Amino acid sequence: MARTAFSWTEVFERTGRSLRGSEIREMLSVTERPGVISFGGGLPAPELFPIAGLRAAFDAVLREDGAGALQYGPTTGHRPLRELIAQRLGRRGIECSPDDVLITTGSQQALDLLGRVLAAPHSPVLVESPGYVGALQAFRAFELEPVGLPMDADGLIVDGVARWLDGRRSLGAPPPAFLYTVATYQNPSGVTLSPDRRLELLDCATAFGVPVIEDDPYSELRYDGPPTPSLRALPGGEDVIYLGTFSKVLAPGLRLGWVVAPRPVIDRLVIAKQGADLHTDGLAQRGALRFCLDNDLDAHVIRLREVYRERRDAMLDALRECLPDGTTWTEPAGGMFTWVTLPAGLDSRDVLKRALANDVAFVPGTAFHVNGGGERSLRLNFTNSTPERIWEGIGRLARSL
Ligand SMILES: Cc1ncc(COP(=O)(O)O)c(C=O)c1O
């Protein structure tokens, strides 16, 4: 190791901040070993990236508008892309104008910016339990205190949210800074908040004055059943802060996401974003836009759905066939994950050690809980492996139990 003049540990201790790494990212580095079947990351299928179309789109942008693409641009994002996003969202009942849309460097950046602008340090923020690890990481970086709220097969238990808020109010405490939800095909559980509970959640948030952040990367990846309307599209949802992304329908490496929010929120986010990165990559914004203009993104999404539906079915069939009695799992109607609960007495962290020895990986449930729990659970991704690899991997997982 190179010599270093400082004690960096002391430097970091002086900040008074803790920064916890993500168990998922650490584990992904182990799973790069050849031969490992990983159900760990939340990765799309790379063989479905529309590389030729994107290459043609980026070529056209550089040929026809190279100077625009390579120059500094507005923090809010490339206006024609904001128009396209507003128009696409309108088709799903999310009424917004391009001025209500802020382009972000992935929706992950939106989580980071929202943590900065909506909450004072040490504020409680309400999250789902289990919840998306990247959001927990973003919120914790600002010393926010995530409070995990239980879920069932219909998503967040809204009665429980109301009781929690009521208890806090009766103590005279201010409401939490916001409530964060992945209401549709949730990461990590795969469950979807039911239509009735969506309305109840909006009522509850309004009654207690709690802003709602709806993170929606997966709703276009729907395999069964009718589409569930976004919280933002429902009556009373006008103040919901809605996050979307091209990561799951096009390619995550583009790092393109967006926020739809009331204007005062957008204004604050723009100021925070100026400090973070000035603006999102202008070439990527124009390349993605050009791709959408010259190709049929909807047809591409239909293809993703076909392939991912087959993979989801393979995973559910393999779980039924291979896992021992007493194991349960969710049957997601969309998205990328299923959530497995092991028989009593098993701890998924111990199982992971044996699974890695058998060349199969997953993420233990503890990673997704803020207040402890999840020892018997694990998350499996089904989009990044072929049906054959899924069967092989679930067989190895079964042997690790
Ligand atoms: C719920 C959720 N939000 C946000 C993200 C980050 O997405 P992006 O690539 O747009 O930053 C992910 C990625 O897996 C996710 O699952």
- Ligands: pyridoxal-5'-phosphate
Task: Kindly state the number of beta strands.
Answer: 14
Rg for CA atoms? 21 Å
Largest sheet: 5 strands, mixed
Determine the mean pLDDT. 95
Helices and strands in order:
Blueprint: H1 8-15, H2 23-30, E1 37-38, H3 51-70, H4 79-91, E2 101-104, H5 106-118, E3 124-129, H6 133-141, E4 145-152, E5 155-156, H7 158-170, E6 179-181, H8 195-208, E7 212-215, E8 241-245, E9 257-260, H9 263-277, H10 282-294, H11 297-322, E10 328-329, E11 337-341, H12 348-357, E12 360-361, E13 363-364, E14 377-381, H13 387-400
Parallel strand pairs: 1-12, 3-4, 6-7, 7-8
Antiparallel strand pairs: 2-9, 4-5, 8-9, 10-11, 11-14, 13-14
Helix pairs in contact: 3-10, 5-6, 5-9, 7-8, 11-13, 12-13
The protein binds pyridoxal-5'-phosphate.
Pyridoxal-5'-phosphate binds next to helix 5.
